[in-house]
Amino acid sequence: MAAMPRSHNDAGNQNPVPAPDTPAAPAGGKHPVDETLPPVRMLTSGLQHVAAMYAGVVAPPLIVGAAVGLSAGELTFLTGASLFTAGLATFLQTLGVWRIGAQLPFVNGVTFAGVAPMLAIVDTTDDKADALPVIFGAIIVAGALGFLAAPWFSKLVRFFPPVVTGTVITLIGVSLLPVAFGWAQGPNPAADDYGSATYLTLAAVTLVVVLLLRRFTRGFVKQIAVLIGLVLGTLIAVPFGVTDFSPVVEADLVGFPTPFHFGAPQFAVAAIVSMCVVMLVSMTESTADMLALGEIVDRPADERTIAGGLRADTLGSAISPLFNGFMCSAFAQNIGLVAMTRIRSRFVVAVGGGFLVLMGLCPVAASLIAVVPRPVLGGAGVVLFGSVAASGIQTLVRAGLEKDNNVLIVAVSLAVGIIPITEPEFYHAFPETAKIILDSGISTGCVAAVLLNLVFNHIGAASRRDSDDVTAPMEPGDEITEARTAKPAPAH
C-alpha cells in the first residue's frame, strides 16, 4: 500500500492526513503536471485560461493609460503590450529556463496591486508624457531587486503550514469574488444601467450554463465548461445589445509592441521605492498562490519551486517594460480553473501563454476575447473564484482545527484579510505607501496568519502542546464543569 502523504501540523509534529481528492501520478509515468494532451484539448483548454484572465490583464493598462491621457490607439497598443508580456512571463513560469520558473500550470499577467501606486506616480509627474517612462524605470529596478531576493524570500515557505496556506487560499478566493460580482453588474460602474436586471440575468444564465455542463456532461466537454459557457453567454447577450463587436472591426491585423514606445525609462527614487513595495506584496501573493496550486495539482511547492516561481515573476516584471508592459505576477483566478477542470498540465497553460503572445502581435485576435461581455465573465467568475475558496477550505480541513490555537489563527486571519473587501475605506487615514499593503486582503491575511502561527504554535508551544484541544461542543443546558474539559491521560 502506498504511504499516505504527511503534513506538518502547527506544533511541529508530523501526522498522516488523508490524501487530497486528486489522482496521483501513474506508476512509472509522468506526473499530470508534466503530461501533454491531444492538440484539440490542448488548444481549447489553453484558450479557456486566457478567457478566464483576459479582463484582469487588460484592466490595469486601460486604467493607467486613461490617467496618462493616451489616445484610443495608444490605449490599444498599451493593452496589446500587456498581453504580449503576460505571454512571455507565462512561458517563463510554466516551461522554465535554468532555475527560473515554478514549472506549474501558472498564468502570469499584470498585477492589479500596482495600479494604485502607478496612478499616484502619474498624479505626481508634472509632464504626463514622462509618467509611463518613470513607471517603467521603477518596475525594471523593482524586478531586478526582486530577482536577486527570490532565493531568500523562498525560504519563508517553512512558515506556511496548512493552517496558514489554507487561510490564504481561502482569502484568495474570497478576495476575487467581488471582482466577479463587479463584472456581473456591467462594464461601467458610472453608467445608469450598472447592475441592471439585464446584466444580472446574463451573469446568472452564464453561471447556470456552466453548472449544467458540469453536471450533465462528461469528459472533454465537462472540462471546458467555462469556455463553452463564455461562448454561449456571449451569443445570448447579442439580442440584448450587450455584445459589442466594434473592437474586432476596428483592430489592426498585425501589430508589434515596439520597445520603449513611450520613451526611454526614467529612474525616480520615490517611484522606485513605491514599486519595490508593490514587488514585495506581489511576491507574498505569488508565494501563497504557488502553495495553493501545489496542493491542487498534488505537487506541493517546496523551497526550490517557490524560488523558481519568484524568479519567473520578477524577471518577467523586469523585462516587461522593454515592451511597454507592467509588473507581472501569478494570476489567482486561473488556479480556480485548474481546481475545477482538473486539467493540471503546465503545457496547457503554456499554450495559453502562446495565445497571449499572439494577441499581443495580432490585435484582431485580442479583440475576439474583448467581445465577451463583462456580465458573462462575471457569471463564469463566480464558479472560478469560488473554486479557489473551496480549495482553501479543503486545506483547512487537514490543518488540525481540533486545536484551539489553529481555530484562533484562522478566525483572526480571515477577519483581517476580509477587512479591505467589506470596508474598502478602513485604512483611509494611513499613508499611501502603507495602504499598498493594507488594501490587499491577501497580503494582510497572510502576514497575520504567519505571525499568529509563530506566536501560538512555535514560541513556547512545546509546554502547551497537550492543552490546546478544542473542548467538546456543548449541548443546550450543559453546565461548564471541570470534569467536562478534563482530558484523559494519553494512552501509551
From TrEMBL:
Gene Ontology MF terms in the entry: xanthine transmembrane transporter activity
Family (UniProt): Belongs to the nucleobase:cation symporter-2 (NCS2) (TC 2.A.40) family.
Organism: Streptomyces roseolilacinus
NCBIfam families: ncs2, NCS2_1, pbuX
Keyword vocabulary terms for this entry: Cell membrane, Membrane, Transmembrane, Transmembrane helix, Transport
Sequence segments annotated as region (Disordered): 1-38, 466-492
Listed name of the protein: Permease
UniProt cross-references to Pfam families, sorted A to Z: Xan_ur_permease (PF00860)
Subcellular location: Cell membrane
Any single GO CC term annotated in Swiss-Prot or TrEMBL for this entry: plasma membrane
Membrane-protein topology: Multi-pass membrane protein
Bilayer-crossing regions: 51-71, 77-98, 105-122, 134-153, 160-184, 196-213, 225-242, 262-281, 347-370, 376-393, 405-422, 434-456
Main location: membrane
Chloroplast is among the record's keywords: no
